[in-house]
Amino acid sequence: MTNEPNIADTQPAILTLEPGIYSWCTCGYSSFEPFCDGAHMGKAFCPSTFIVEQTSTVSLCMCKRTENAPYCDGSHCRLTQQA
Asked: What is the pLDDT of residues 54-75, one digit of tens each?
């Protein structure tokens, strides 16, 4: 088992979210990306909960390497440059 999350995609998920509480997948194995579906069970990951106060368009990280979780910080650009 690795401590590195799976790269779900090399582009962010750009979504319009309604106000509410969301659980962002940190392991990269969810079939409901970018949201948690419990696929982390048995792995060294826990979902990251975040609150949306008003309807907003957001860019959620899919490479799971962001320093600004759950939001994309461009880390996926470094991954695609290395490939």
From this structure: 999 999 999 999 999 999 999 9
User: Cα–Cα distance between 58 and 40 in angstroms, integer?
Assistant: 23
| Domain definitions of the chain by residue range | 13-82
| 3-state DSSP helix/strand/coil % of the chain, to nearest 5 | 10, 25, 65
> Among positive and negative, which fits the CA dihedral 44, 13, 63, 60?
negative
How many other C-beta atoms are found inside a 10 Å radius of the C-beta of residue 7?
13
pLDDT score, position 82 = 56
Local structure of 38: helix, strand or coil: coil
Question: What average pLDDT does range 30-50 have in this prediction?
Answer: 93
Contact 2, 40 (CB under 8 A): no
